[in-house]
Amino acid sequence: MEERKIYKKEELKALKDWFANQDLPQGLQVDKATNIPNLKETVARLFNQAEACFENPKMQGCLILLENIKAKLES
Fold first, then answer.
1. Distance between CA atoms of 71 and 57, rounded to whole angstroms?
2. Spatial distance between the Cα atoms of 35 and 29, rounded to a whole number of angstroms
3. Are 64 and 7 in contact (CB under 8 A)?
4. Torsion-angle region of 60 (φ positive above 0: left; ψ -120 to 50: alpha; else: beta)
5. 3-state SS assignment for residue 42
6. Which helix (H) or strand (E) holds 28?
7. Which of the two residues, 1 and 54, has the higher pLDDT score?
């Protein structure tokens, strides 16, 4: 089984800083199954969740989704 990454506080801050410096579109089709109609609100809510549970490897879906959003925006 693959080892889950445990995010550090610095990594969370770096990710949050990256998003703060972006001009986010209204919505985003992240992949075939993930469409986000209100990207700014969704990102803010994902960061709220991430800050509450970033040290728990079982509760890091919010961070994975944020990384996927970032990758899509960079592509």
1. 21
2. 4
3. no
4. alpha
5. helix
6. strand 28-31
7. 54
